[in-house]
Amino acid sequence: MSDLAGQVRDGYAFDGPALDLGALVVDGRGDPGAKVRIPLGMLNRHGLVAGATGTGKTKTLQVMAEQLSAAGVPVFLADIKGDVSGMSVAGTANEKITARAAEIGQDWQPVAYPVEFYALGGHGTGIPVRATITSFGPVLLSKVLGLSDVQSSSLNLIFHFADANGLPLLDIKDLRSVIQYLVSDEGAEQLRSLGGLSKQTAGVLLRELVAFSDAGADDFFGEPEFDTADLMRTAPDGRGVASILELPGVVAQPALFSSFLMWLLADLFQDLPEVGDVDKPKLVFFFDEAHLLFKDASKDFLESITQTVRLIRSKGVGVFFVTQTPKDVHPDVLAQLGNRVQHALRAYTPDDAKALKATASTFPRSAYDLEEVLTQLGTGEAIVTVLSENGAPTPVAWTRLCAPRSLMGAADAAAMTAAVKGSSLYPKYAEPVDRESAYEKLAARVAPPSTGSYPQGSTAPDAPPAQSYPQGDKPPKAQKDEPNMVEKVLGSTATKSFVRAAATAAGAAIARQIFGTAKRRRR
Ligand SMILES: Nc1ncnc2c1ncn2[C@@H]1O[C@H](COP(=O)(O)OP(=O)(O)OP(=O)(O)O)[C@@H](O)[C@H]1O
Ligand SMILES: [Mg+2]
């Protein structure tokens, strides 16, 4: 084994800065002379942190996130169990921590890190994160709604229709009103011209969206939309800000949660410039409960994930997937994860045994009997291999990991609330805004341009798109030929300036990206 200690010492001796993961375990003890590390410059080669429940995955993230922050790199983490929030509070020494630190040669000090708390749609303690429907796009929305292939291609057509006709889809009611318009008598011709969208499927989509709204989803979609540039911040002292998405009760809406994480990634991808290989990453994104993303994913969806993960690397963003076994991650994505921290696996059931075998086979060759070792690892220990600075895998090392310097566990709830309310980002995102968009535009078409009252019912929340355009209520410059609804909306001076302002969010200027997500006009 001492031979292995030498290999590890050499294999993990990097020229540039690196994160300390821990030390090699030799004969059951950490060997401070054989440190196990990840080069900062290799974090954009992505990674996987895996292991059974309670084996130390979250603490591994915390250890990595702390050192990234200290190195000036912002990080993003999802806090599923509430125990990541402790990063904002200095840890307290105890016997276990002191013993662990001494054994592996870690210079342990209690440290609190700069943190920003977020919450999807404001559900939970955090600055509300919302996306507009248009930028979320049809692909991710289909995933959230669990649509069939036919339904999801129909949703695609509806987005195209709205994009091409200057109907901004900011919230769910915008999308509903566009569909309602298309299934109305007035929209019949346009529905036909779309081709491939049946009235029946449109009706199903409408019902899905109503149920989605009823389930509380309106809070997640709309404005102000979260600007992913806010994830790229550093604190005044130069440390990277840890953005922590608080996700209580996420288990209830797994598809929503994983799609939102994917949206954040896709949006970052769109906005960030190419930087090629960098000395240190621009951001490291920890994608927790990653199995949810791949569950029931269509082929197109998988391709989009694979492509985003592959391409975001050259934008300086590292993505670490966190899940129980490598089997949870699609092979095409797994193949791109250069850094591996595998905590203990259980071998209770035949399925466990299969996962164990498969996991062992994904590691480079080593002297370990991995199928055996993976079931023997203690808490806070892992099998590690990373990419060295020249891109070759480092020796496989049974590692005892460093202890987090911040609190292991949840931060105080009152302190978190105070931090959120006191954040400089709070005023920007706290209150939802309902700007003029497709719903209002479609509702407005039934209104006379200058005089007269709105027709009965045109202000009823669900009614507008179904209203017919009253004869004689044409905009002033209406031609002999009845202009279609969109021309009417565009022709009205009241909406013209808005339409111009929305030009990048509508019409030809909308360039839907890998995930069908759209670029916004905020920057
Ligand atoms: N690196 C570490 N240093 C010190 N203690 C650790 C470390 N890793 C794990 N532990 C101990 O093990 C416990 C469980 O670790 P952790 O919460 O990270 O597990 P997990 O794999 O994230 O579990 P789950 O799947 O349930 O989220 C911690 O509360 C802590 O007491
Ligand atoms: Mg955990």
Description:
It comes from Phytohabitans houttuyneae. Residues 474-485 have a biased composition (Basic and acidic residues). With 523 residues, the chain is an alpha/beta fold. The protein has two domains: 2-128 and 231-429, P-loop containing nucleotide triphosphate hydrolases (Rossmann fold, 3-Layer(aba) Sandwich); 133-169 and 172-220 and 436-509, no CATH class. The chain is 37% helix and 13% strand. It is built from 19 helices and twelve strands. Strands 2-1-12-11-10-3-9-8-4-7-5-6 form a twelve-stranded mixed sheet, sandwiched between helices. Strand 1 (18-26) and strand 2 form a beta hairpin. The longest helix has 18 residues, at 254-271. The radius of gyration is 26 Å and the shape is elongated. Residues 57-58, 81 line the site of magnesium ion (MG). Adenosine-5'-triphosphate is lined by residues 51, 53-59, 63, 81, 83, 100, 379-380, 401, 403, 408.
Structural topology:
Blueprint: H1 2-11, E1 18-26, E2 29-39, E3 47-50, H2 57-70, E4 75-79, H3 95-104, E5 115-120, E6 127-129, H4 133-145, H5 149-164, H6 172-183, H7 188-194, H8 199-214, E7 242-246, H9 254-271, E8 283-287, H10 291-294, H11 299-312, E9 317-323, H12 331-334, E10 339-342, H13 350-361, H14 370-376, E11 381-385, E12 397-401, H15 413-422, H16 426-429, H17 438-444, H18 485-491, H19 493-501
Parallel strand pairs: 3-9, 3-10, 4-7, 4-8, 5-6, 5-7, 8-9
Antiparallel strand pairs: 1-2, 1-12, 10-11, 11-12
Helix pairs in contact: 4-5, 4-9, 5-8, 6-8, 6-17, 9-11, 13-14
This protein binds adenosine-5'-triphosphate (ATP) and magnesium ion.
